[in-house]
Design a protein that fits this description.
Elements: H1 11-46, H2 48-57, E1 60-65, E2 72-73, E3 79-91, H3 99-110, H4 114-124, E4 134-137, H5 142-150, E5 158-167, H6 171-178, E6 181-183, H7 186-191, E7 202-204, H8 207-211, H9 213-217, E8 218-219, E9 221-227, E10 233-240, E11 243-244, E12 248-250, H10 254-264, E13 269-275, E14 280-287, H11 293-297, H12 301-309, H13 318-321, H14 331-340, E15 349-352, E16 355-356, E17 365-366, E18 374-377, H15 378-383, H16 387-407, H17 430-437, H18 443-450, H19 460-471, E19 482-485, E20 488-489, H20 507-521, E21 539-545, E22 568-575, E23 582-588, H21 594-610, H22 618-628
Parallel strand pairs: 2-12
Antiparallel strand pairs: 1-9, 2-3, 3-4, 3-5, 6-7, 8-11, 9-10, 12-19, 13-14, 13-23, 15-18, 16-17, 19-20, 21-22, 22-23
Helix pairs in contact: 10-21, 14-16, 14-20, 16-18, 21-22
């Protein structure tokens, strides 16, 4: 009889195996549960906004309602910047199944030229907030709209929206003063308020459009609509109306602006006209101009390159950024500085042999009239624009006093309230030269500054502002372009306005004004031809700014120089003398003496403002210029 083996049951081992298997099973279950929970958290919390929006967009969609941009008018209510109806193409990336295929189809349907395709694709991928439409192109043609409408079923997420588009009726004349709007870029999008700019594709880029962006833009609204499966709107469920931007009334006078533009006749230059008592800028022209409407929808590459490569620099705003030696236009200001510092009296005289020499220096700093003017007092020095008088005065003043007194008139500073991009130009000093060149200041450099040459540079706006302050007998009123925002007037007393200039003797203003009047109406005045037939008392000062320096014994001959090496013509003036209504600065590049070309333009501007219907027309001014340009006299 066989015996079965005695197999002992190992309960402890079996229990251990069971526990290991059970633990592994629990770990697997927990891992899978954790993954599921994590996925649920991701979908329900992290991605909640996106999926809830997608779900809601299957039936309900929230659409932004951009506000109408405020209009811009001149002082007489003439429209300068309007909004005209147009159609834009937008894209919401989150609603597009295949972005590359959609873009390729759009390029085909729009028939875009090769050079615009890259920019089109870049705009489609520009950073946007979720479900916010990106602007692809503006101002669609009727043919483009028709092709897009026929293929709408192939273009999910692509919409044609009607929106007002900025338009400037007098683009070239107003371009530098108004500035322009353009498409919002990625950097601007990050900084802008998402709610206020929802659905907005344009923002002020330069000029008044940029400075008053907050007032002009307004506040975006929204509407909630129900849609069908194809995205067509079935009904409106709710609406918050947008708040339109405030209209802006400027101090500019369109007729004065147009006159200034026509007077410059396409030459490189600038004219600025200001009402002294209020600081209102009547005209601020820089020529040549450019069509600012091109920049609203996005200028094409070829056109922009053409503007950039144009030697006349049409994009450069000469009125606020052009740096020019002021020449002799600053002599009335220097005369006042000499009176304030006690260096001269109104009756101080010098004997002018035709030059000035520094002590122990053989170099002669010459007067423009090489044989000199003989006995010269302060008034005559202004009337005949005597250089020797101002070499002497500048030497006696010294650069420190000269810098301080000229700074009181706003030279070397930004002077205007709302002129975006204004330059400080340069009022030189010892500290400036040490910091710029690491060199000391030399006495000969003071003499150059004394006749508005050397390192001294001004902008046309600065010169007009200083002239207005002079006309106000030292009372400072900050120049401004905005007269009224909505129904609210812009205050005359603006922050950061310079202190008034106080003289020890008020009669000094009269003596300086007398010299300026003789410039135009006096027998020896450098611009006496400008005063022929003048119907009101006017004070002015001509200036000639050298483009390059002449040698010690060289004489200037415009006929021997290339056109762009000839002197700049400058003139500043105000009128009438007793109750000034207008102050003007004129700069015409490479036009020669300021007593001819620039002076007649200034006279035409003052005539137009003071005489209105009796003012000469542009053709008459051009005839006078042709007669006088052959007889340049003085500076």
């Amino acid at each position: 009889m066989l015996k079965r083996p005695n197999t002992l049951k190992n309960s402890e081992q079996e229990l251990r195996i069971f526990r290991v298997r059970a633990l592994l099973a629990v770990l697997v279950v927990l891992t899978l549960a954790s993954l599921l929970a994590g996925r649920l958290v991701y979908l329900q919390i992290v991605q909640h906004d996106m999926y809830s929006t997608r779900s809601e967009n299957n039936r309900v969609r929230v659409e932004p309602l951009p506000p109408n941009r405020g209009l811009i008018y001149d002082r007489n209510g003439v429209l300068l910047a309007e909004n005209r109806p147009t159609y834009n193409l937008t894209l919401v990336r989150e609603r597009v199944d295949n972005l590359d295929e959609t873009l390729a189809l759009l390029v085909e349907l729009l028939e875009l030229p090769e050079e615009e395709i890259e920019a089109f694709n870049v705009r489609s991928r520009q950073r946007q907030r979720p479900f916010q439409p990106a602007l692809l192109t503006s101002d669609l043609s009727e043919a483009q709209i028709a092709r897009l409408a026929v293929n709408r079923h192939r273009l999910p997420g692509v919409e044609i929206e009607a929106q007002p588009l900025r338009y400037y009726p007098d683009a070239e004349i107003m371009a530098h003063a108004l500035g322009y709007v353009g498409r919002i870029n990625a950097e601007e999008m990050e900084a802008l308020d998402a709610g206020r700019y929802a659905g907005t594709h344009f923002i002020g880029k330069t000029g008044i459009e940029r400075f008053y962006e907050e007032e002009l833009h307004g506040q975006a609204g929204l509407r909630k609509v129900e849609t069908n499966a194809r995205g067509r709107v079935l009904r409106e469920l709710g609406r918050t109306d947008p708040v339109p931007g405030a209209n802006l009334t400027l101090t500019l006078d369109k007729s004065m602006q147009m006159l200034a533009y026509e007077l410059l006749d396409g030459r490189r230059g600038s004219i600025v006209a200001i009402v002294p008592a209020t600081g209102e800028i009547l005209a601020m022209v820089s020529t040549p101009g450019f069509d600012s409407n091109q920049f609203v929808t996005g200028i094409d590459v070829a056109s922009y390159r053409g503007l950039q490569e144009d030697l006349d620099l049409p994009l450069f705003n000469r009125a606020i950024r052009g740096h020019y030696p002021p020449g002799s236009t600053i002599k009335p200001f220097l005369a006042l500085a000499g009176l304030v510092e006690g260096v001269i009296t109104p009756d101080s005289t010098i004997n002018d042999p035709g030059y000035f020499q520094l002590p122990n220096d053989s170099r002669r700093y010459r007067n423009w009239l090489r044989w000199g003017h003989g006995r010269v007092d302060m008034e005559r020095s202004i009337a005949v624009s005597n250089n020797t008088y101002y070499y002497t005065l500048a030497h006696d003043l010294g650069i420190d006093n000269l810098h301080e007194q000229m700074s009181n008139f706003g030279f070397g500073q930004r002077v205007a309230h709302d002129v975006q991009g204004e330059s400080t130009a340069l009022m030189p000093s010892r500290d400036w030269k040490r910091g710029r060149f690491n060199q000391p200041w030399y006495p000969g450099e003071t003499l150059s500054v004394g006749i508005g040459q050397g390192y001294w540079q001004v902008t046309p706006l600065q010169l007009a502002s200083a002239t207005a302050t002079l006309a106000n007998r030292g009372h400072w009123v900050k120049p401004r372009l905005a007269r009224q925002i909505g129904e609210t007037p812009v205050p005359r007393d603006l922050p950061d306005t310079l202190d008034d200039i106080q003289l020890a003797n008020d009669s000094w203003w009269d003596r300086v004004f007398s010299g300026m009047e003789k410039v135009i109406s006096g027998r020896e005045g450098t611009a006496r031809r400008t005063g022929v037939g003048l119907e009101y008392p006017m004070g002015g000062k001509s200036g000639t700014a050298q483009v390059f320096s002449l040698g010690q014994d060289q004489r200037y001959n415009a006929d021997e120089l290339a056109e762009r090496l000839r002197d700049h013509a400058l003139f500043m003036a105000f009128a009438p003398l007793e109750d000034p209504q207008i102050a003007v600065s004129v700069i015409v590049e490479n036009a020669g003496g300021g007593s001819t070309h620039a002076a007649h333009l200034a006279r035409a501007m003052t005539d137009a403002w003071l005489l209105e219907d009796d003012a000469p027309d542009v053709d008459e001014v051009r005839e006078v210029l042709e007669e006088d340009n052959a007889n340049v006299e003085g500076n």
